[in-house]
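**Sequence with structure:**
===
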Amino acid sequence: MLSLWRKIRRTGRVAEPAPERPAAAAAAAGLGGSVQIRHVDAGSCNGCEVEIASAFGPVYDAERYGARLVASPRHADALLVTGPVTRNMAEPLRRTHAAVPGPKAVVAVGDCARDCGVFAGAYGVAGAVGDIIPVDLEIAGCPPRPDAVVEGLRKLTGR
């Protein structure tokens, strides 16, 4: 056991250098670097939710860049919306957006949120997130990889 501690002491801290700071999105100007985020599933297949959970997990750790998930839209600065907006979720999404105090930002995560993806033209779909509420930032992918989600959130926080 003592030899392990010696090896740890000799090696020191080993970590990758931080990635370069991204160009901040226009919505980030009023948010001040730390963003409280409310996630809204508007009708997705849950693929994006798995990747968002990974983005906030210990490997990608989106919280180190100032993004934190909150439980209430009244405590949020931004909405993270996944999936095409179904007819049943259009009004709750509008109400959630209205409950977020300003300045606020909306991030459309995944191809379904951006342009309805494979659900385009389905009878239960009201449209993409941008058709229902204004979108400030889009993250592409079906589902987007956790590093893409973190990169999008870094654009939002400006860190």
Q: What stands out?
A: The first strand starts at residue 35 and ends at 41. The chain is about 30% helix and 20% strand. The CA atoms of residues 70 and 126 lie 26 Å apart. Residues 146-157 form the longest helix (12 residues).
